Each structure stands twice: as C-alpha cells, then as structure tokens.
From TrEMBL:
Chain ranges of the Peptidase A1 domain: 49-356
Domain of life: Eukaryota
UniProt family annotation: Belongs to the peptidase A1 family.
GO molecular function ontology, one term from the record: aspartic-type endopeptidase activity
Lineage summary: Eukaryota, Fungi, Fungi incertae sedis, Mucoromycota, Glomeromycotina
PROSITE patterns: ASP_PROTEASE, PEPTIDASE_A1
PANTHER family per record: BETA-SITE APP-CLEAVING ENZYME, ISOFORM A-RELATED, ENDOPEPTIDASE (CTSD), PUTATIVE (AFU_ORTHOLOGUE AFUA_4G07040)-RELATED
The protein's name: 4525_t:CDS:1
Organism: Dentiscutata erythropus
Annotated stretches, region: Disordered: 21-43
Length: 358
C-alpha cells in the first residue's frame, strides 16, 4: 500500500555555509563520529519526506528515515509544557496505550529525544499494527520544533533500534500483512515537480512502473544500516577508479557525504568547482553529471539535483560534500541528492537494496 509523501519545504534562516555545516554535523552524530547542534529537519529543499500515521487513534506527521530504526512522537506538554504547533501524544486518550516506564534516549543531530518506551496501536497506509513499540518523548531537541513533521519513523533494520524493538515494517512482515518483505521510495523533487515521479512510499512492494528494472545489491554488513558495496563513481562518464567503497543508503540525509579525499577527487573533474573553507561549490550552470555504480549498473545524478543551494557569484553548493562521517575512509553516505534519481527498494528478508532509474 502507498503512503503519499510530503516534501519538507526550504528553510531560509541559515546561510548556505551553515546549511552544509549542519548537514555534516548531523550525519556525524547519526553515524557515530562527532557531535552536532542541529537535526536534519532544519533546512534545505527536499531535506525530508514525511506522511501521516496514527498512534492510539491520534494523528501524526512522521519523517521516513532509512538511516534509523525507531518510531517516536512527542508527548503532550513535552519540553516542560512548551508551546508547540506539533501534534502530541496524550496517553489518556488511548485505551490501548501501555507502558512499563522504561526510559529511552536517541541521538540524531543537535542533541536527542528522550522519554519512555510504550506500545499502542499504530496505523499507516491502511495497515494496523497492535502493540507496536514506540518512544513517547518528554524531551525533544528544540531544533526539531522547526521541522514540519512531529516524529520519526525509522526504516532501518531492527538491530539498529535504540528501543530494542521491531520496526513497524518488520511487524507487518511477521504478521503476514504485506505480500512482499520490500518497501520502496520514489522521492519527488521541488525542481522537477511532484507529478513527475509520483512521490511515494510503498509498503510491501514496488511501483509496477519500476519493478521490472530494479537491480538488487546484497548488504555487505550486519550493522543494521542499508549498506551496500559501491563499485565506482564517474563524472561525465569518466571513471574515478574508486575501489573498496561501500555506501549507506539513507533517505534521512539530504546530501551525498563522502570521505574528504573522494570529495576532492570528484570535484577535480567538475570544471569551475571550488573548495570554500571545506564546502564545495560548483557553477550554477554546470552541465556535469555525476554517476554512481552499484552491482555493475550505473545511475546518474541529474545535474539539477547536484546543484543544491545558491551561493552567489554564479556558484551553488554542490550536492556532494566531504566529511568523515562514519570514521571510515571507505564509506559513502548516500542521501536524497542521489535517491531522487531512482526508485529505491529495501528488501528486509533478503537483506538487499535495489535501484531502478526513474
């Protein structure tokens, strides 16, 4: 079944330099190498994709994130009763709410969310899951309040869960509610217009328009991330000769964040590219096409998706940035700059990620 996705609109309160720095620091915190002061929901066109679900018959807008594995929403009067425009969870309004008051804390970007774990009836895309474990947050980083979504639905593998719980999709598989152990994304773009792609998340299958062209790649780790081997990267069809790399596929990250030496290599092949105090800029009118190869199949990043944010003087922020996010020089963090160009499918049973060009 399909979930209609809403795209997070642009945030203009930060400069282009701050936007990149916040994106990098968010990723470092999320993947275990550093600290950050802002969550990923705070800025940028197409930064996040979210949709409606209910917990205990109470409605929420949830960010769909393949880079994490927990479901959480804010409790009524969270952050000591701060004023908020977000939907909040009221245990007293749900006859199916249960908790043993076990504490949890999850770190994303500019801090963390914490509270207690609980269970309740979770509904999404026409499915109903009884006794779904989730976090009911008493404390939420203040920066989350800038985002248009209320909470997060993690779609990584169970082993990554801070709540030590099955994800909703794993429960759908275990209960026999989905015909296939696969969920898939088509991420629309503000530049392309929603109608070009359909902008959807499907639980239990793949859009028929793309199902015949999906090519799968087995996971190369068991750490809970959707991490696969990457064969190479190319610029304008020319191989960069990268070997021994892997990629974490993450809908919750905007950019493609790569080891610093790889970022330098990529941009050395893009005419007019500049390194401005660690942030890569490219000509706004660039015609460069960057491609990634997985399982022997090459997928192009459209030039318009490579151009992220206007930096002035005919330059724009590049959608590929350098950063030691995971602590490894061999791991790329592949976010929406790439994923907007493909239908991406995530096979929980067979531990594989597939792509089909849009």
């Amino acid at each position: 079944m399909k979930v209609p996705l809403t795209k997070n609109e642009s945030y203009s309160k930060y400069s282009w330099k701050e936007k990149v720095e916040r994106q990098l620091s968010t990723a470092r915190t999320k993947f275990g190498d550093g600290e950050s002061e802002e969550p990923m929901s705070d800025y940028g066109s197409d930064i996040g994709y979210y949709g409606e679900a209910t917990l205990g018959e109470q409605k929420f807008q949830l960010l769909f994130d393949t880079g994490s594995a927990d479901l959480w929403v804010p409790r009524i009067n969270y952050n000591h009763g701060m004023k908020t425009t977000h939907n909040t969870f009221d245990p007293d309004k749900s006859p199916t709410f249960k908790t043993h008051n076990k504490k949890f804390s999850i770190t994303y970007g500019s801090g963390n969310t914490s509270g207690i774990s609980a269970t309740d009836t979770f509904k999404i895309a026409g499915f109903t899951i009884k006794n779904q474990t989730f976090g009911i947050s008493d404390v939420v980083s203040s920066d989350f309040t800038d985002g248009p979504f209320d909470g997060i639905l993690g779609l990584a593998l169970d082993s990554l869960s801070s709540l030590h719980a099955k994800t909703p999709f794993q429960n759908l598989i275990d209960h026999g509610d989905v015909k296939s152990p696969v969920f898939s994304f088509v991420l629309g773009s503000l530049k392309d217009g929603t109608n070009r792609t359909g902008n959807e998340l499907i639980f239990g299958g793949i859009d028929p328009k793309y199902s015949d062209s999906i090519s799968y790649n087995s996971l190369d780790t068991s750490n809970g991330f959707w991490q696969i081997v990457m064969d190479d990267a190319l610029v304008n069809g020319k191989s960069l000769g990268l070997e021994g790399k892997s990629a974490i596929i993450d809908t919750g990250t905007t950019l493609v964040i790569v080891p610093p030496q790889d970022a330098e290599l990529v941009h050395s092949f893009i005419p007019g590219a500049q390194n401005s105090d660690g942030t890569y800029l490219i000509p706004t009118d660039t015609t460069a096409v960057v491609s990634l190869t997985f399982g022997g199949v090459t997928y192009n990043i459209k030039t318009e998706h490579l151009v992220v944010d206007d930096a002035g003087n005919g330059l724009s922020v590049s959608g590929i940035q350098g950063g030691s996010v995971t602590g490894s020089d061999d791991v790329w963090l592949v976010g929406d700059v790439f994923l907007k160009n493909v239908c991406s499918a995530y096979d929980v049973k067979n531990r594989a990620v597939g792509f089909a060009p849009l």
